[in-house]
Write a structure and sequence with these properties.
38% of the residues lie in helices and 20% in strands. The protein is an alpha+beta fold. It has three domains: 31 residues; 35 residues, no CATH class; 109 residues, OmpA-like domain (60s Ribosomal Protein L30, Chain: A, 2-Layer Sandwich), CATH 3.30.1330. The strands form two sheets. Strands 4-7-5-6 form a four-stranded mixed β-sheet. A three-stranded antiparallel β-sheet has the order 1-2-3, with no helix packed on it. It starts with 8 loop residues before the first helix and ends with a strand.
Length: 191
């Protein structure tokens, strides 16, 4: 783009204003091309994906923390698909009352994180209703952190690690089978 300046006061202002409009039009075209996939990945805006999978434009590349939600023209937040893509059964991967994972479990998780195409992960630990609520909270978070550490070691982006303890059962805690199903670490993939 060529910008020419004139010696007259009005001409200089018009040239600067014209250059600003040309830059803005170029940025809008690049953004539009990027959203339609026309740039083949050459233009990548600064986007931060929150733990729920919703995008935020980062205004200053994150230096000062200025950002705004990425919304459609109708004002609807742009959120990526987030689904539970793996379930780590605690009884198979962890010893009782422990956040240490077996060597076989580590290998299995490494294979999983290497093979998935997710952009980021949310890792959530759960327990059954045995023991106190505080103990279950700590244990579920410790197990989720163990899985998150394996994910990070494989280069995966972990958006959030949560420990919910016994608060979100998927089966009844009245039976041994139900308790076994509730002892789990869920891996949510954000795509």
């Amino acid at each position: 783009m060529t910008v020419s300046f004139s010696k007259t006061g009005g001409g200089l202002a018009a040239a600067v204003l014209g250059a600003a409009f040309a830059l803005q039009a170029g940025a809008v075209a690049a953004q539009s091309d990027s959203q339609q996939g026309l740039d083949r990945g050459q233009y990548v805006p600064s986007i931060w994906v929150d733990p729920d999978g919703c995008e935020h434009w980062v205004m200053d590349d994150g230096a000062e923390g200025f950002m705004t939600p990425h919304v459609t023209r109708q004002g609807i937040p742009v959120c990526r698909e987030a689904t539970v893509c793996a379930l780590v059964r605690s009884d198979q991967f962890f010893a009782t009352d422990s956040a240490s994972i077996s060597a076989e479990g580590r290998a299995s998780l490494r294979d999983f994180f290497q093979s998935t195409d997710a952009l980021a992960f949310i890792i959530t630990g759960h327990t059954d209703s045995d023991a106190s609520d505080a103990y279950n909270q700590r244990l579920s978070l410790a197990r989720a952190n163990t899985v998150a550490d394996i994910a990070r070691a494989e280069g995966a982006a972990v958006s959030e690690v949560r420990g919910l303890g016994e608060r979100n059962p998927i089966a009844s805690n009245a039976t041994a089978e139900g308790k076994a199903r509730n002892r789990r670490v869920e891996i949510t993939c954000i795509k």
